[in-house]
Specification:
Helix content: over 70%
Structural class: mainly alpha
Largest sheet: none
Number of helices: 4
Strand content: under 5%
Oligomer: single chain
Radius of gyration: 17 Å
Number of domains: 1
Order of helices and strands: HHHH
């Protein structure tokens, strides 16, 4: 009975697919928050003198970026990504719109069986 509930191996296809799904979700969440921060909150702060949205969205992005970072590192280790690919993918979460591009590129390469 206990043997039925064992976790998949760290680098099994099932574990990599689950890590990729976590990474994709976090990349999109972080990307949306960063776009909202730059497109909505910062103009409100600097043009309408309303700083609260920057505080809320900036804090949310910061905390969720940490989870994105962990998800990206987990996927990179499981899928044996190159150091360059890992660093560029992680840094993509700090540039508006780039996390969406990096997520699509990583997903495409992973589906093709290539290293990122």
């Amino acid at each position: 009975m206990a043997a039925d509930r064992t976790a998949p191996a760290r680098d099994s296809e099932q574990a990599i697919a689950a890590a990729l799904q976590r990474y994709r979700v976090m990349a999109n969440v972080v990307g949306v928050l960063l776009v909202l921060l730059f497109v909505v909150a910062m103009p409100l702060k600097y043009f309408a003198d309303v700083p609260e949205p920057v505080t809320v969205l900036g804090t949310a992005h910061g905390w969720l970026y940490f989870l994105f970072f962990l998800a990206a590192v987990d996927l990179a280790l499981r899928a044996k990504w190159t150091l360059k690919g890992s660093v560029l993918t992680i840094l993509a979460g700090t540039v508006p719109f780039l996390s969406f591009v990096a997520e699509r590129a990583a997903t495409r390469k992973m589906a093709a069986g290539q290293r990122v």
